[in-house]
Structures are given as C-alpha cells and as structure tokens.
Design brief:
The protein is of the alpha/beta class. About 45% of the residues lie in helices and about 10% in strands. It has twelve helices and five strands. It has helices spanning about 20-30, 50-55, 60-70, 75-85, 95-105, 115-120, 120-125, 130-135, 140-145, 150-160, 175-180, 195-205, and strands at about 5-10, 110-115, 135-140, 165-170, 185-190. Helix 3 (about 60-70) packs across helix 4 and helix 5 runs parallel beside helix 12 (about 195-205). The longest helix has 12 residues, at about 95-105. It is globular, with a radius of gyration of 17 Å.
C-alpha cells in the first residue's frame, strides 16, 4: 500500500447537501420555487440559524430538526422530500471516483457519519452499493457516539485497522476536523461550495498516483 487510507464523512462530502436539493424539496412538498430560502454555507449571511450552528450553540441535528419543524415534520420525514427516491444523482461523482481510485490503489476506505440512519433509514441506504464497497461504516446514530468525540474516530479507525497518522479524514464541518486532528488523523476540509477543488485537495493528501 503506497499511501494513506481514507476516512470520509458522508453527508455533504459524498452525499449532496440539502441546500443543493432545495428545488427537489420544494417540488415534493408542493411549494412555490424559492420557499425554501435558507442556504446554509452557500449564503450564510441570509441563514441566521446556520450561523448559530456554526458558532457551536446548536448541533447539526438541532438545525435540521428546526427546519423540519417548519413543515410539521420530523427530520427523517423532511429528508424524504429531499432525498427520495435514492439514486446516484444524489452522490458527488468526484467523490465516488476518489473512493474508486483509493480502492484501486489498495487503500482502505471508511465512512464516519453522525446521522445517516437517523436521517435516511436502512431501506434508503440499501439503494447505494457504495456502502458495501467500503471497509467500514460507523454511524453515530447507531453507535450513539457523535463526532467530534474522540471515541467516534477511534471506532472508525478500529474498523479500518489503520493508524490515525496514516489516515486522511475528510469532513465539511470544522469542528469535526478539529476532533480528528486531536486524535492524530490527517484532516482535510471539504468545502461544499467548491466540491471539485475539495476532491482534488483530498486526492493530493492521499498521494494517489
């Protein structure tokens, strides 16, 4: 094996963000275009609740619970309007390609996520062969341990069988990257507003041929 292994957040890094699927959500909810006006990282100045989350005063789960409550839905119910039906069009092609490149170069690949099953459910997950292709999947909504807690990263590393110093961790939230760096992982920030460039930075960190 010629370089570091790869550990990925899923939502935002591999899966498109809800902000990128607002048009889809509006159609599913029967709303007029533009009714889902929040834009999170794509225009934080117009999304005060996102700023509250980024400042650490609420969690990401609380952010989406509040958005879902605007439509009298729980989070999973709201996410269905954005992400159903599941399909490859919901995944970032550049990150799927990066996973394929890493695996072709005999790197181990894992996913460490906080809310996958809580937001989407096992039936939705079954539609993506990607989950069967990775070496480990650690979901905080199953284990009960969320990033950036050190135990979340240790669970993922144990599943990979890798040393943190030999593992690149990619996430779109700075707080999670700080947690990863604290346990010795190589942190890479994924800017969801610049996915192509972010995928290239991750590939460079992996030193892929």
């Amino acid at each position: 094996m010629s370089g570091p292994h790869l550990l990925l957040d899923f939502g935002g890094v591999v899966l498109l963000t809800p902000f990128e699927l607002r048009d889809r959500g509006e159609r599913s909810l029967g709303l007029k275009p533009g009714c889902l006006s929040w834009q999170g990282p794509f225009d934080p100045d117009t999304d005060p609740l996102w700023q509250v989350f980024q400042a650490g005063h609420i969690t990401e789960r609380q952010y989406w619970a509040a958005r879902s409550a605007e439509f009298d839905l729980d989070t999973k119910g709201f996410m269905r309007h954005l992400y159903d039906p599941p399909g490859p069009d919901l995944l970032r092609s550049e990150m799927v390609a990066l996973i394929d490149r890493a695996r072709s170069d005999e790197r181990k690949v894992g996913i460490l996520t906080n809310d996958l099953r809580a937001f989407h459910g096992p039936e939705w997950m079954a539609a993506f062969p990607l989950f069967d292709a990775v070496d480990t999947l650690v979901d905080g909504s199953v284990t009960g341990v969320l990033k950036p807690h050190p135990e979340a990263f240790h669970k993922a590393l144990a599943g990979l069988g890798c040393d943190p110093a030999d593992t690149v961790f990619v996430d779109d939230q700075a707080v999670n990257l700080s947690g990863a760096e604290a346990v010795g992982l190589i942190p890479v920030f994924f800017d969801v507003t610049r996915p192509v460039e972010s995928a290239a930075v991750a590939a460079a960190a992996l030193s892929l041929p």
